[in-house]
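Hi support team,

I submitted a single chain yesterday and got back a structure, but I'm not sure I'm reading the token output correctly. Could someone confirm the output below corresponds to the sequence I sent? I've pasted both exactly as they appear in my results page.

Thanks,
R.
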Amino acid sequence: MNKISITKASPQSLVGGQLNQMALEYMAYSLAGTKDKGIIEKTFNKLWRSNQNRFSHQYAYEAKKDNQTLGMIMCYPTTIMNKLALPTFSKLFELRKWSLIKYNLQHWKE
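Hi R., thanks for writing in. Yes, this is the structure output for that exact sequence:
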């Protein structure tokens, strides 16, 4: 019988960014500053591999069975989460530049 294990997430995980994106659904558009699936995927994969942001592998654990990721959980105390707000925005701005701001100004009702 194969057991499910919970392991600390790795920046090399191929699904971490994708699972974050899936959990956010349409909110991923505002965070990535686009509805382009390719750009959203690249943005969340870069966030996943980076440190000090709300979507980093640094705060994640993966549920695995037979080396296949079944799911993921992000966990940190709210004090850490609140401290990550500015670094997360800074990283998003670094990745997406003015496209991030432009998209959010044009789609502020979403």
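A quick pointer for reading it: The mean pLDDT is 93. Let us know if anything else looks off.

Best,
Support desk
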